[in-house]
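We emphasize that the prediction below concerns an isolated chain of 475 residues; any contacts that depend on oligomerization or on bound cofactors are therefore not represented. The input was used exactly as deposited, without trimming of termini.
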Amino acid sequence: MSTQQSDPRIPPQAPEIEEQILAAIITDKRLADDIMSFVKKEWFYYSRNQKIFEILQKLHQANEAIDILIVEQKLEDSKLLEEIDKFYIYDITKNFYPTENFQNWLLIFKEKWMLREIITQSNNALKKAYDNQDPFLIIEENNNALDGLITKNTSKSGKLLIEGMQEVLSGIETRMQSPNKYIGYPTRLPIDELTSGWQKTDLIIIAARPSMGKTALVINNAVEIADNPNPEYQTPVAIFSLEMSHNQLTNRILSYRSKLNSEFMRDGKLKPEEFKHLVEIASNQVADLPIIIDETPAITLTQLKAKARSYVRNHGVGLIIIDYLQLMSGEKTTQNRNEEIGTISRGLKALAKELEVPIIALSQLSRAVEMRGGDRRPQMSDLRDSGSIEQDADVIMFLWRPEYYKIDEWNGQPTHGTAYAIIAKQRNGSVGEKKLNFHKETGRFSAPGDHLMSKAEQGEAYIPKTNFYEPDDPF
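Result of the prediction step, given as a token string:
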């Protein structure tokens, strides 16, 4: 960093510590080894100290002896002696004194450099803001720079295999003692048997043709994960809804929780007792759910990343849902739609890893499904717009309802009210499919054992019981 500053304020610095560090390298080989494994040239504020350190670094890397005369000669060979002044070298070494606090000095020295970097980055952001650049891009670049500053300066060193062995074995033992324990956030649907819940850092793509129930499924997931009775599996959820409004999603959540027909709710066809029941559900079971609905239309990857970081940091969000991928906007520099979607999917995977949360992105399938004929079961080649989705995703799950295609029977079973969750890819697990019940009128998915539907889910008006959740209620 240049010492020339337009701001009259003096940047954070520690000149005496800088001098003590250089003197230690020259006079104390034991300290020199520790310093060279820790300090970087750019951490020095003063230009001449940077140049001296660079000479010392080269000598140390070449395993050559270091003393005042050798340093003086190297500076002269580099035509730097006159600029730096040989008496400066003598002065700093004469004033060097070993101390037990040297490690603390090194930390102070590093922190001064970090403060200067923060100032530099903040000034860059300020200049771009005055230049009327994209605010979300400014925030994204600023966050990346500051996050990188933290990451590069708090990163863990590599570990031998044996160092992580105990943690892995303990985890296996815990799951042996509790075989029903999930690794991720459980959906409370049979798909958990294949996935063990949605895993942190995973990008999960749920893909289907329209009207298969994609949005209904993630609403089910959001509610069950936001309200799981086990705190270990409960977390706030953020839903980026690019297609439906906040009110429409709220209507669906209320229908899911109350088991009232969503069309009756939308059209005002509820009976007074049904509306009373709905108000009770809204007040007691839905109002306090930690679910954030963001309805920013045509959101870009940069905007989504900035908002997601904020939701995780400020609201503790542990699951992010995007409905849906193809409605996101690409960055201005992208040339075509395939490249846009590829950039978005890679960015979402990187974001999941950065924030250590699962990200579920809904995706449309191409019309090739409809043109193929037969049972129209989806396959990988049906993923719309980009083959990179297949590459970037950790889990790809298709939703398929044979009833939608007038298939009345599948595998010897009637298809009415059924759906299939097909795990076509799972980076860290097996593939397969699970049969689900789908109750279209209330947007509910359930396990096949819950085969009875309430009158609301059959499209009839629902008359609430005195105790809604009685033991004989299959849901």
